[in-house]
Design a protein that fits this description.
The complex is a heterodimer of chains A (115) and B (113). Chain A has 115 residues and is mainly beta. Chain A is globular. The N and C termini of chain A lie far apart (41 Å). In chain A, the strands form three sheets. In chain A, strands 2, 5, 6, 10, 11 and 12 form a six-stranded mixed β-sheet that branches. Chain B has no helices and eleven strands. In chain B, strands 2, 4, 5, 6, 9, 10 and 11 form a seven-stranded mixed β-sheet that branches. Chain B has a four-stranded antiparallel β-sheet with strand order 1-3-8-7, with no helix packed on it. Chain B is globular. The chains are: A mainly beta (115), B mainly beta (113). At the A-B interface, strand 6 and strand 11 of A face strand 4, strand 5 and strand 9 of B.
Chain lengths: 115, 113
């Protein structure tokens, strides 16, 4: 079974700073997908960014980018120019590439952006 | 598209009562997932369906939980009888099979007193 570990329960940074959230995972598969989801106080789960394991290039979405290190099984999220609206829980998730399986989530990081 | 629609948004019930949570997936999506979120255990996959057929229910905590998907546009998660430890937020999500994109509903916050 796959496991996803987020070692930072909570982080706090000043507005406009850059912050990196850590995620490691354990799998014996070679083909899989990784995701970062944002959950604001409204509790809606919002997809931030996703990465296919077979792609070497790191995914980027505007201010959000990842550092995908396949050999190290690491998948960190970098948020540049952080904004107050980025305050939320952030979950790292893994999905097997073998079919339409569900997601395995980490325990989450509570990110607080201070004004 | 209205997205994944869950109802009710909040549910408060007494221990021992039956609770039914509902989900309408995005039209055209053929995979549906039920998750439970608690502070202690985080987000857990309970069960998922492909083309209305249950594929993996190993995450269902016990026999008090059951899920059905009678057609492509509707699914239910039932708890009977409910217990206080079932209090959690229950999410439904849908996707196209073999696609890695998932869309989550807004969740149902269940409180069992």
């Amino acid at each position: 079974a796959q496991t996803v570990t987020q070692s930072q329960p909570e982080m706090s940074v000043q507005e406009a700073e850059t912050v990196t959230l850590s995620c490691t995972y354990d799998t014996s598969e070679n083909n899989y997908y990784l995701f970062w989801y944002k959950q604001p106080p409204s509790r809606q789960m919002i997809l931030v960014i996703r990465q296919e394991a077979y792609k070497q290039q790191n995914a980027t979405e505007n201010r959000f980018s990842v550092n995908f290190q396949k050999a190290a099984k690491s998948f960190s999220l970098k948020i540049s120019d952080s904004q107050l609206g980025d305050t939320a829980m952030y979950f790292c998730a893994f999905r097997s590439g073998g079919g339409a399986d569900g997601l395995t989530f980490g325990k989450g990081t509570h990110l607080i952006i201070q004004p | 598209d209205a997205g994944v629609i869950q109802s009710p948004r909040h549910e408060v019930t007494e221990m021992g009562q039956e609770v039914t949570l509902r989900c309408k997936p995005i039209s055209g999506h053929n995979s549906l997932f039920w998750y439970r979120q608690t502070m202690m255990r985080g987000l857990e996959l309970l069960i998922y369906f492909n083309n209305n057929v249950p594929i993996d229910d190993s995450g269902m905590p016990e026999d008090r939980f059951s899920a059905k998907m009678p057609n492509a546009s509707f699914s239910t998660l039932k708890i009977q009888p409910s217990e206080p430890r079932d209090s959690a937020v229950y999410f439904c999500a849908s996707s196209l099979r073999d696609s890695y994109g998932y869309t989550f509903g807004s969740g149902t916050r269940l409180t069992v007193v």
